Each structure stands twice: as structure tokens, then as C-alpha cells.
Amino acid sequence: MSSITLALSKGRIFEETLPLLAAAGIVPTDNPESSRKLIIGTNRPEVRLVIVRATDTPTYVQYGAADLGIAGKDVLIEHGGAGLYQPLDLEIARCRMCVAVRKGFDYGAATRPGGRIRVATKYINAAKAHFANKAMHVDLIKLYGSMELAPLVGLADAIVDLVSSGATLRANDLEEVEEIMSISSRLVVNQASLKTKRELIQPILDVFSQAVKG
Ligand code: ATP
Ligand code: MG
């Protein structure tokens, strides 16, 4: 009998996926927050979960190491989406991608034609596309986390980061000056798995899409 593997990251994606899994009659046998296991079984012998870093989810699915995964739009844009079918916006882990600067920094002046700014971000592709659309020259600096620090120590003039409540920006004297896009997480499916394991994957797709509508 064939089986399927779903790639999830710990934290908000895992937590917000649990109700969707429950709707599909799938209950994990361990909690990745407390267990150190990276492969987690479920009540359904043909369904297992693998726990990966959020940025790695599309890669596991692209190569078929996982049949399905759940990843943020931010992560999917940086990955590029090769080999992935993206059938469903699950509308979980919602936030927005935005440009933020130090309070008082004159972003309007800095971004006038001919201006040039330094932007630190984990989201190089999304940032590149955003500033290219505005016909702006930017020097992008790749960071892997804590982007908020960069403008405070002179590494960059601005950051492109994800924001939900804005509390982290406020705590660091930063302000949002531009929204780039709203972000939520999508179901991604390996294109080959969709064909070879459709009898297992399609019912999950159907239940998830019902749950999103409901
Ligand atoms: P880590 O926090 O381990 O460095 P990460 O930031 O990639 O990794 P998570 O924090 O679990 O992983 O975020 C997973 C996804 O949730 C992100 O890709 C994004 O789509 C979404 N997300 C990130 N930050 C927020 C937020 N503050 N509120 C809501 N959703 C968010
Ligand atoms: Mg995070």
C-alpha cells in the first residue's frame, strides 16, 4: 500500500495545521515542540509527518522527499516554486511583508528617482522585484534573521521583513513605510506524487479546501 509524507515546520505552521489535519481525520502521535523526533507518525498508518525548517519545506517537496508540505508565500517566492503544484491558499500564518525604516528616516526622500538605499533582508527575490517595480536602485544585503537590528547599527537604511502586530518594529524604534504584499501559507504538492498517489492526496486536498471555505 502506498503512503504519504507531509512536511511541516514547527511553531505557527504546525499549530495552525493541526485543525486542518483533524478535519481530514489525521492526528499526529507526537508533538514536535516537545519531542525531538523529526519523523512523526499519525493515527493513520499511511500518513506521516516530517519536521523541517520553514525555508526547507519547498525543497523537500520539490525532490519528492515529502509528497506534500505547507509553506509561507514568502518562502515559496524565495524558493521559486520549481517542481511544486500549489493548489490551495490555506490562509494560515497570516502576516504581511513590508519595508521598515528607523523612525524619522526620510524614506520618501531616499527613494526619489536617482536615490539609492541599502536594504537588509532574508527575502532577496521579493525585495528585488519590489524595488525593481519602483525603478529604484537598491543594494540588498542578505541576512538570516533579526533584520530589525540592521538599521539600528548602520548596516542598512531599510529592511524588508514580515510583520504581524508590529510590536517588534515598535520595540526597536522602527516604522513600517510600505506594504509589499500580504502573506499566508499554502499547501504545496510534489507534481509527480499528485499523479502517482492521487487516491491519498485528493481527499486531503478536498477536506483542506472545505475547511478553508468554512
Ligand atoms: P525561524 O523563526 O525558525 O527562524 P522562520 O521564521 O522561517 O524560521 P516561522 O517563524 O515558523 O519560521 O515562520 C513560518 C512562516 O510563518 C513564515 O514563512 C511566514 O510565512 C509566517 N510568519 C512569519 N512570521 C510571522 C508572524 N509574525 N505572524 C504570522 N505569520 C508569520
Ligand atoms: Mg520566525
From TrEMBL:
<dbReference type="GO" id="GO:0005737">
    <property type="term" value="C:cytoplasm"/>
</dbReference>
<comment type="pathway">
    <text>Amino-acid biosynthesis; L-histidine biosynthesis; L-histidine from 5-phospho-alpha-D-ribose 1-diphosphate: step 1/9.</text>
</comment>
<dbReference type="InterPro" id="IPR018198">
    <property type="entry name" value="ATP_PRibTrfase_CS"/>
</dbReference>
<dbReference type="Pfam" id="PF01634">
    <property type="entry name" value="HisG"/>
</dbReference>
<dbReference type="GO" id="GO:0003879">
    <property type="term" value="F:ATP phosphoribosyltransferase activity"/>
</dbReference>
<protein>
    <recommendedName>
        <fullName>ATP phosphoribosyltransferase</fullName>
        <ecNumber>2.4.2.17</ecNumber>
    </recommendedName>
</protein>
<dbReference type="InterPro" id="IPR013820">
    <property type="entry name" value="ATP_PRibTrfase_cat"/>
</dbReference>
<keyword id="KW-0028">Amino-acid biosynthesis</keyword>
<keyword id="KW-0368">Histidine biosynthesis</keyword>
<dbReference type="GO" id="GO:0000105">
    <property type="term" value="P:L-histidine biosynthetic process"/>
</dbReference>
<dbReference type="InterPro" id="IPR024893">
    <property type="entry name" value="ATP_PRibTrfase_HisG_short"/>
</dbReference>
<keyword id="KW-0547">Nucleotide-binding</keyword>
<dbReference type="GO" id="GO:0005524">
    <property type="term" value="F:ATP binding"/>
</dbReference>
<comment type="subunit">
    <text>Heteromultimer composed of HisG and HisZ subunits.</text>
</comment>
<comment type="similarity">
    <text>Belongs to the ATP phosphoribosyltransferase family. Short subfamily.</text>
</comment>
<keyword id="KW-0328">Glycosyltransferase</keyword>
<keyword id="KW-0963">Cytoplasm</keyword>
<comment type="function">
    <text>Catalyzes the condensation of ATP and 5-phosphoribose 1-diphosphate to form N'-(5'-phosphoribosyl)-ATP (PR-ATP). Has a crucial role in the pathway because the rate of histidine biosynthesis seems to be controlled primarily by regulation of HisG enzymatic activity.</text>
</comment>
<keyword id="KW-0808">Transferase</keyword>
<keyword id="KW-0067">ATP-binding</keyword>
<feature type="domain" description="ATP phosphoribosyltransferase catalytic">
    <location>
        <begin position="53"/>
        <end position="206"/>
    </location>
</feature>
<dbReference type="InterPro" id="IPR001348">
    <property type="entry name" value="ATP_PRibTrfase_HisG"/>
</dbReference>
